[in-house]
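Section 3.1: Structural characterization of target chains.
Under the original work plan, the team committed to producing a structural model for every single-chain target entering the pipeline before any wet-lab resources were allocated. The record below documents one such target. The sequence was received from the expression subgroup and is listed exactly as submitted; it comprises 319 residues.
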Amino acid sequence: MKKISVTIPCWSEEKSVRQMYDRLTKIFIEKLPQYDYEIIYVDDYSPDNTRVEIRKLCAADKHVKAVFNARNFGFSRNVFAALRYGTGDATFMLFGDLQDPPELLPQMVAEWEKGKKVIIGQRTKGHENALMYSMRKLYYWLMEKLADSRQLEHFNGFGLYDKSFVDVLKELDDPAPYLKGIVSELAIEMSIIPYEQAESLRGKSGANFLKNYDLAMLGITSYTKILMRLATFVGAGLGIVSALFAVFVLISKLLNWNSYPYGTATIIIGVFFIGAVQLFFTGILGEYILSINTRSMRRPLVVVGEKLNFEEEDREKEA
């Protein structure tokens, strides 16, 4: 009997833990009875009663397992770690706030049985304000133009992953993984299923502007080179313009000795312009250095504080 692992990254999901379990078990009992399954909640140090609700489920059903992080490690690190906990023939990942419908699992399994190794859900509609939507569209447009490989739009990791692909992820030693880029680059036989995203049961998103900015810069520094090369090109161009301007000033001085110097406005504008360009690319350089520094420290992806109902897997590893 084939086994499907369901991994669920969680943060402040006390309102949806039970509902997630009920919907998933109903799917396996009614539509996927031929598969064995496990449901793994991966909590990233929630401040509410999420762990209490998960513990109740683990005590009542051995199909339910839990991984509790020792502290909050952030969205991208917890999501990547959660996906790698799957031990089944395929791993289905969705998020604890139930924005992504678990009812798509049978359709994804059908695609998997046809030979697809990665089946992802792609949002066609979500619940976010117009400003955030516009900024997200701009980011995807920039990544499409700048990235070395094709990037997936409106994809957060929701999908079904074959064991062979999960094994590849387990081999990656990256303390700052960017899952969107990794799936875009490494998934060979992939299928995309569009869906409408529901409203979060949490009530509000846990991601603010700074967290979204951090995730966006992780993608840019991981999968683009052109910004750094653009800095070189702009620097060279400004150097040429400055040299030509110096020649012009010298000739003007020689031909109009008494009427020179010109007004200071042009000089001030030029200084501020060049300074702004330098500061911008210094900031870009800093983002790349920060990304390199994070990866070079080789810190663990997450630190697990507690695991529930993993006794069988632990015994197999010891054997």
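The mean pLDDT is 83.
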